[in-house]
Amino acid sequence: MREIDLRSDTVTKPTEEMRKAIAGAEVGDDVYSEDPTVNRLQKMAAEMLGHEAGLYVPSGTMGNQVAINVHTDPGDEVILEEKSHIYNYEMGIISAASGAMPRPLSSDRGLLDSERVREEIRPDVEYLSDTTLLAVENTHNNQGGRVYCPSEIRPLIDLASEEGLSIHLDGARVFNAAVAQDLSPEALTGDFDSVMFCLSKGLGAPVGSVLVGDKFFIEEARVARKRFGGGLRQVGILAAAGVYALENHVERLDEDHRNAARLAEGLERLGFAINPNPVESNIFFVRTDPLNQDALELADSLESKGIRLGARDSSLIRIVTHLDISTDDVDYVLEVLKQQLK
Ligand SMILES: *Cc1c(COP(=O)(O)O)cnc(C)c1O
User: Fold this and answer.
1) Which atom belonging to ligand 1 lies closest to the Cα atom of 59?
2) What is the Cα–Cα distance from 4 to 321, expressed in whole angstroms?
3) Tens of pLDDT, residue by residue, the chain (342 residues)
4) Cα of 269 to ligand 1 centre, how many Å?
5) 337 vs 261: CA distance, rounded Å
6) Ligand 1 site, CB within 6 A
7) How many whole angstroms separate alpha carbon 151 and alpha carbon 79?
8) CA distances for 270 relative to 265, 281, 289, 299, 300, angstroms
9) What's the gap in Å between 85 CA and the centre of ligand 1?
10) What is the DSSP code (8-state) at residue 146?
11) Ligand 1 centroid to 199 CA: how many Å?
12) Mutation probe of ligand 1 site: the residue of 170, 199, 318 with most atoms within 8 A of C-beta
């Protein structure tokens, strides 16, 4: 049976060509920094994102949390957006492992307002905690893959530098953000103190993320990674998939964006409500209540036809397009839904 998995871009499977790159990878012990493929990946990622150095990490969560660990001391406050991945989906590691306090702020469309942030920075008084870090997410997962442009991010970068805060980018899908705006990724990442991006999402690698920053930051991050249990050995075998992905799977993200837009437009024609509308990258949300459809039941019934959707509750579904979804798959999903709704 045809399999169309729209739950997440983490479900991609390595292509034949990627598997060849994996099989042929040169390796060494990365705890000694002697894995040539890991070193190549780290250098490549740092260059693409406008930073001095990079560090390969097993997951995006570890990348974000290692960065937070380096940027903060126990008791410090980290300002972030209330729907951010770091605040909602990283199990409180920020407090459990770094002893830092998240200070979530609301926003209109996922990007914090710099003047609002300025008001929340704690004054330098002995009985208050220190605000030391500001975190940004681009694209914003839980805001439906929203994309922010350099001029929107600029005030936050300037604020951080004026107020002496570090600023970290959770750029799990920052290559989607760059491709969606036809920008070099560096334009969205170069001015952050640290950036994490995932190889394991739309870029199609089976595992891994990379953290980038200046040399001094990455030296400290390497120590923190080891402390988090993320010291890696002959992992060039996995980094090779990352190198392959950066060389071959960045520009094609545009196809995922076009497929997401096509699917969203089709769903809207069928009567569903789409958010954001228009779609900005490879993620969007669908509301099923305008059609009086229960989202969980709808997802269940499509599963028997090989179509998997990420229903969040009885009226909300998250849809994500990726490397393993073709335009033909999109048209098939729309056709099946059309029949189903009759
Ligand atoms: C997926 C994701 C992460 C975490 O990556 P994992 O590899 O799943 O730990 C972090 N931030 C955002 C925005 C994500 O979408």
Assistant:
1) 7
2) 10
3) 889 999 999 999 999 999 999 999 999 999 999 999 999 999 999 999 999 999 999 999 999 999 999 999 999 999 999 999 999 999 999 999 999 999 999 999 999 999 999 999 999 999 999 999 999 999 999 999 999 999 999 999 999 999 999 999 999 999 999 999 999 999 999 999 999 999 999 999 999 999 999 999 999 999 999 999 999 999 999 999 999 999 999 999 999 999 999 999 999 999 999 999 999 999 999 999 999 999 999 999 999 999 999 999 999 999 999 999 999 999 999 999 999 988
4) 31
5) 17
6) 59-61, 64, 85, 137, 141, 170, 172, 198, 200, 209
7) 20
8) 9, 21, 12, 16, 19
9) 7
10) B
11) 10
12) 170
Is it true that the peptide bond before 104 is cis, omega within 30 degrees of 0?
Answer: no
**Ligand 1 centre distance from Cα of residue 201 (Å):** 8
**Closest C-alpha residue for ligand 1 atom 6:** 60
Ligand 1 atom with the smallest distance to the CA of 137 is 13
Q: For residue 71, how far is its CA from the centre of ligand 1 (angstroms)?
A: 19
Q: Which residues have CB under 8 Å from 29's CB, separation 6+?
A: 35, 233, 234
Both tokens of 265, joined, read: 């437009």
Question: Coil, helix or strand for 71?
Answer: helix
Tracing tokens 């705890």 back to the chain, one arrives at: 31
Tell me the residue type at 126: E
